Amino acid sequence: MSTSGDLLAKLPTDQEGGTTTKRVRVRRRLEELIDTGLKPGDAIPSERTLVAGLGVSRVTVRQAIADLVEVGRLERVHGKGTYVTGPQVDSQLHLTSFSREMRERGLRPETKVLAASQVAADAEVAEKLHVPVGRPVVRVERLRLADGTPMAHEVGYYPSALFPGLLEQKLDTLYDVFATKYGFVVSSGYQTVRSEAADAVHAHVLQIPRKAPLLVQERVTKSGDTTMEFATSWYRADRYRIHMKITPAGTGNGA
């Protein structure tokens, strides 16, 4: 594996007939550094280091970095630096677990349980789960990652009456626990998607700037006729895209 020191040697004279700009050559050098010397989440050398190591101007370095930010290979974090991006996921709107979806895309899923407790259902949770206000529910807050990169911050609510002792179970793979421990297999659900700007909490958990765009998925999940889950997931919009198949609702409609 090449080291950053090897890759930051001054740029050689253009071997392509003088047609390749310094900006392009710096970009190629940075791409080589990303491919061979860094991993997602690593910071690239500072602009000052790149200028001194490659023997080019700060303007050229900034232009090359901007090119790689634009195509998604690098990301700037305000006040911190520029980092190698993590995985980007294109998702279909379908009912499956996060872990399974990531594995299907060749990514390594990971779930960190941030908090879990029994709480009284407020009006919104009670409505979604079809239980009386104040009824005990289990609240589980989790961080979902793919290849070590934070992807989604999730908060879910589950009726305590359906899942006695849930807090004693392994909470990083809830759907598996529901099926094997309690006999509730996910069979249907409905989901809404909206956009939102990251507040201080989501920015901290997802390691993104405040006001960064988020895709918010709100989901109600059922096993047969039993409502078993109400969950909200805040996905990083720079890492997650949703695709859906659309068909006409009828004939004779205008375009």
Summarize the structure.
Helices cover 28% and strands 32% of the residues. By secondary structure, the chain is an alpha+beta fold. The strands form three sheets. The chain has a six-stranded antiparallel sheet.
Describe the structure.
With 255 residues, the protein is an alpha+beta fold. It has 2 domains: 4-84, Arc Repressor Mutant, subunit A; 89-243, Chorismate lyase, CATH 3.40.1410.10. It has 8 helices and 10 strands. α2 (22-37) packs across α4. Mean pLDDT is 82; it is low at 90-95 and 251-255.
State the end-to-end distance: 55 Å
Could you give the order of strands across the largest sheet?
Answer: 4-5-6-9-8-7
Count of DSSP strands: 10
Strand content: 25-35%
Overall geometry: elongated
Helix content: 25-40%
Instruction: Supply the CATH class of the largest domain.
Output: Alpha Beta
* Most strands sheet: 6 strands, antiparallel
Residue stretches low in confidence (pLDDT < 50, at least 5 long) are: 90-95, 251-255
The figure for the number of domains is: 2
If you consult CATH, what is the topology of the largest domain?
Answer: Chorismate lyase
H and E string: HHHHEEEHEHEEHEHEEE
Q: What gyration radius follows from the Cα positions, in whole Å?
A: 23 Å
Supply the CATH architecture of the largest domain.
Answer: 3-Layer(aba) Sandwich
Structural class: alpha+beta
Please give the count of helices.
Answer: 8
